[in-house]
Structures are given as C-alpha cells and as structure tokens.
Amino acid sequence: MILPAKKPGLTLANRWRISDGGIIFSGVLFFLTLGWISPPSGWESSTLQSLASGPDDWNRYARHALEIHRNGLLMPGAPCPYDGPGGFLYAYFLAACAAGGWNNSGDFYLLQSALLGLSWGLWTSASRIFFRSPWLWGLFAVSLAVVFFLDVYRHYVFRLLSENLFLPLQAVWFYSWIQGSNAADHGKIERYFWPSISCIAATWMALVRPQLILFPWLFLVGSIGFYRYRGEVKKSVFWSFAVFITATEMFLCFRNFWVCGVPSCLPEEGMSYALSQGWRQSGGFFQKLAFIMGWLPALAPEYHIRPHWLLAWAGILGGGTWSGLKRRVSLSHFGMGLLFILYYGATLFWVELPSYGFRYILPLMPLLWIYLFIVLQSWVCPSQVTHR
Question: Which residue, 235, 263, 291, sits at the end of a domain?
Fold first, then answer.
C-alpha cells in the first residue's frame, strides 16, 4: 500500500481550521469583557470636557480633540507651532469619536479595550505563518495576551494616550504585510489591497509616534524590493505610495505654516529635546540597557521591575546565540534581529528613558515576543524550524 507523501511546508493554518476572523473576534470579546467587569485601578468616569484641564498628556489630547471638534482640522486654537504631545493623530481619533457622540471616558475606555483585543487578534493570526508547532503557537498567543494585560491594559487603556491607537495600527500593518507577502495565493485585487493597507497603517504609525517618521520610507523601500522581485505590483503603485506618505507626513507642516506661518514638520516637544540632550541627560549606557531589558529601577527607582521582559531577553539572547552556533538562523531571525538593533540602538542614544522609556520600549514588544518564540522553536523543535 502506497501512502501519499506528506506535504512539505504544511502550515498551522492548514492543520487547524481556525479563521482569522474567529481569532480576532475572540480577542476583542475577551478584552472588552475584561474591561466591562474589571476596570483597572486608577480609572475614573469623566467627560472629555473635564479631562481637558490639566498638564498631563491625556489632558492635552482632550483639549486638542475638543479644538478639532469645535474649530476644524487645523486646530487654530492649539499652540503655534504645534508642540505636543507627539502623537498628534490620536487627537483626531478622539475628535472623530466625539463627533460620533462618544464623550464619556468610559466610552473611550471600552473602545480602547476592544482595540487592544483587535491588536492581539491580528498579531496572533499573522504570527501563525512562523510556527509549525500548534503548541508553541498557542503558548505564544496566551503569553502575548498576558503581556498586553500587564503592559498595556493596566497602564494605558483607561487613559487618553496615543499607545491605544498606535498598537492597533501596528497590528494592522503587520497583518497586512504578512497577507501581502502571500500575494501569490490571492486574487489580483488583494495583491494591491494588502500592500496599500500596510502602507496606510505604516504612515499613520509615524503620525502617532514621531520617532518613526522614517519608518514608512523604510517600509516602502523594502516593499519595492520584495514585490518588484516577485513581479506582483506595478511601479505606479509605489509612486502612489510615495505621494501618500509625503502628503500625510507633511500635514503637520502645512497646519503650522497655514495657522502659524512657521513650516515646522514635527512636534517640537520631546523630539528636539531627545535629539539634543537624550544621551547626556538619561543615564549611562549600561543603565539604559538595563532599563530596556526590564530592570526599570536602574534609571527610575519608582518603577517596578518587569520580570517578563528580563525572561524574554534572556531567552532571545541565549536561544539566539545557540541557534547561531548551530546555524539555525532563518530570515525571520535576521530581519527581526536587525530591526531590534536599529530601534533599541537609537533608543539607547537618543531617548529620555526615565520619563518616556516605557512608552518607547512598548511599540516593539509584540515583535519581540514573536522573535522570542521563533528562537524557542529553533531550540525545542529544530526539525520544524521555518525558514521564513
């Protein structure tokens, strides 16, 4: 009796008939239910108007949102030129919610809980492509939910802070990029749809996190190399991407010039300080490195140690070194490792870590977790390592 040959490269998506929609819905439902039955400590019910008075970032975002809602997209009553907070696109998100009748902090809190669940669902769905072991993928999904609960839900969803918009945009970018990388499996429309969505998400990420202002261009260059190599997307599409990125990133410059007469293209607060004094004012190299890896008291004694960060970095450095010695380094190893070196290297030199370090480290945490489990897979399941 001749048995059919086992198909190489059989992915978990084919083994487990779990739709992306089901995973995303379960994530939204879980975090929305969690927000409904167990609000984090520190949450207080208030209106957008009452939140508009105060010096903190969430107060200023509320003021800008009300200014946009009342006086138009150019925020004529905001400072000239716009100084901060840095993630000015988040103010437009809040203004859109206010225009839809959402004015209570409880509305924003539940919405941001749902967006956190959306982020988890997109990251979990997109990451399946890297795993051949269903147990490792399931463990990754559970651990990522725990990380989101500890680092995002408990600190951000009940506040008006831009992380609540950045993380969903980042998840949309990553999910769209993964879908676009499998464009050969899609129809003609999807071959253009997914790269377009990932370009829009990458550009909007830069408007929420100004330190990522070059990220859309790096993404564009990488996309040109990838898609043109496979011959799946026309050159005109990339020219339209470049026009979109330029026009979108120049919006703040246009606003400042039209309202204030000053062509300033970045929020002045934070960016200029970080570039001029971040290294000198934020501690030494080893203190900042310890902070990034989870020993937050190295720079800020009032912060708590993040043991899951320490464990993650120990696993990445130890498992990554072992994989390198055994020559089990995949394209995913190399690409994500290079991204971490560039991003965290820039963070070491330019970011004022004691004040904003937690918020600067958080953006790459989902990718860090994927990388950790890729390394674990190469260690515990060497025969099942994916070469993606």
Answer: 263
